[in-house]
Amino acid sequence: MFPLTLDHRCPWLPLRGTASSWRRVLGGAMGRSAWASLCLMGTLHEATAQRDRKVPMQEDEEWRDVKLRWDPDDYGGIRVIRVPSDSLWTPDIVLFDNADGRFEGASTKTVVRYDGTVTWTPPANYKSSCTIDVTFFPFDLQNCSMKFGSWTYDGSQVDIILEDQEVDKRDFFDNGEWEIVSATGSKGNRTDSCCWYPYVTYSFVIKRLPLFYTLFLIIPCIGLSFLTVLVFYLPSNEGEKICLCTSVLVSLTVFLLVIEEIIPSSSKVIPLIGEYLVFTMIFVTLSIMVTVFAINIHHRSPSTHTAMAPWVRKIFLHKLPKLLCMRSHVDRYFTQKEETERSIGPKSSRNTLEAALDSIRYITRHVMKENDVREVVEDWKFIAQVLDRLFLWTFLLVSVVGSLGLFVPVIYKWANITIPVQIGNAIK
């Protein structure tokens, strides 16, 4: 039994002894069990770009050392003492998958009871690596684990007993970006040719709170995509349509660069918001091409292009306007009818009249030609309007269906996340 000495002059310091004496007595105390539990403290910090997770927590470790027993009656009824942890043997429980190279926690005092029970609750800031799945960013769910075990002792020397499978979260508060869905522990054993090594794995299922990214990334991107649709509502002869499309494309590129800085780089998966941005950029690029084509159609004339094909006239001047609820376009055609010669009067009068008729015919043909040219130009302009209306409805439909198809299933899945069920030693 370890010799304890009371100092009545200093009741707050009932223990006299040196660190070497503690270690000497405890040198042969092997084959003990350590009870372990985990308590989260503070808030969760995650450096997403580096895939590191920093978790402030408190390890509750308890073991029984038979050589630290005493009779309280022999020492003035003292039942509990507090001893610096560096003066006692403590189990070298460390975080295996740490990311900063620091394996130990803070050096705090241990609580030693008269029956040899030692309780040690060292606080620590653990920085652990975790593979981040950004497929559904910012509506993603991450499952990260932290593996604790003895660094030097095998199971025959120090066994780890998981006291509570649920992590204590009473002192934990959310950081505004992540929410812990579940935090559970499970015990496992790693064996080799001679020994077995117990370890405890704590699995943390965390859910990202997407409000910030929804307000400042997703909603602006959706607004830009619908702004692209409005390009086709502008008059066909407006050159500012291309300027608007180009401005939207530049804005989307800036958003894409911002997202690239936020999420970790990975070629395995494409994040949801990245897919939507690429989809919108393709969308805007197609709108620029279509706008250029519509402006080209608007400025066509008989002097620059060949005559309009009959099928073009039939589809774009008669069929599509009705389907698109546009006012029907009326074609005006002039039929040239040659006046038949009539026997009028004498030959001299007929010659004078023929000359006058030739002049009238010339003027008539000139006026009719100008009317035909004007009608053809108006037909091309109307076709440009039909194309704008057609692409307006097409792009609006694609934008709505694409946005809903990408986000609604993911949001529904994110909103209906269930806490994983503990089955044996595995988390499912």
Automatic annotation (TrEMBL):
A Pfam family found in this protein is Neur_chan_memb
Q: Could you tell me what reaction this enzyme catalyses?
A: Na(+)(in) = Na(+)(out); K(+)(in) = K(+)(out); Ca(2+)(in) = Ca(2+)(out)
- Give the record's subunit note: Neuronal AChR that forms heteropentamers composed of two different type of subunits: alpha and non-alpha (beta). CHRNA5/alpha-5 subunit is only able to form functional nAChRs when co-assembled with another alpha subunit, can be combined to CHRNA4/alpha-4 or CHRNA3/alpha-3 and CHRNB4/beta-4 or CHRNB2/beta-2 to give rise to functional receptors. Interacts with LYPD6.
Task: Give the species.
Answer: Phyllostomus discolor (pale spear-nosed bat)
Query: Which GO cellular component terms, listed alphabetically, does the Swiss-Prot or TrEMBL entry include?
Result: acetylcholine-gated channel complex; postsynaptic membrane
Function, as annotated, reads: Component of neuronal acetylcholine receptors (nAChRs) that function as pentameric, ligand-gated cation channels with high calcium permeability among other activities. nAChRs are excitatory neurotrasnmitter receptors formed by a collection of nAChR subunits known to mediate synaptic transmission in the nervous system and the neuromuscular junction. Each nAchR subunit confers differential attributes to channel properties, including activation, deactivation and desensitization kinetics, pH sensitivity, cation permeability, and binding to allosteric modulators.
Location in or out of the cell: Synaptic cell membrane
Which Gene Ontology terms describe the biological processes this protein takes part in? response to nicotine
Which ranges does the record mark as transmembrane? 211-235, 242-264, 276-295, 390-412
- What residues does the Neurotransmitter-gated ion-channel ligand-binding domain cover? 57-209
Mainly resides where? membrane
Q: Which GO terms describe its molecular function?
A: acetylcholine-gated monoatomic cation-selective channel activity; transmembrane signaling receptor activity
The UniProt record lists the Neurotransmitter-gated ion-channel transmembrane domain at 217-330, 340-407
List, alphabetically, the InterPro entries matched. Neur_chan_lig-bd, Neur_chan_lig-bd_sf, Neur_channel, Neuro-gated_channel_TM_sf, Neuro_actylchol_rec, Neurotrans-gated_channel_TM, Neurotransmitter_ion_chnl_CS, Nicotinic_acetylcholine_rcpt
Which PROSITE patterns does this entry report, sorted A to Z? Answer: NEUROTR_ION_CHANNEL
In the record, the note on similarity to other proteins reads: Belongs to the ligand-gated ion channel (TC 1.A.9) family. Acetylcholine receptor (TC 1.A.9.1) subfamily. Alpha-5/CHRNA5 sub-subfamily.
Family matches, as SUPFAM superfamilies? Neurotransmitter-gated ion-channel transmembrane pore, Nicotinic receptor ligand binding domain-like
Kindly give the membrane topology term recorded for this protein: Multi-pass membrane protein
Specify the superkingdom. Eukaryota
Protein name stated in the entry: Neuronal acetylcholine receptor subunit alpha-5
Name the UniProt key words of this record, in alphabetical order. Cell membrane, Disulfide bond, Glycoprotein, Ion channel, Ion transport, Ligand-gated ion channel, Membrane, Receptor, Signal, Synapse, Transmembrane, Transmembrane helix, Transport
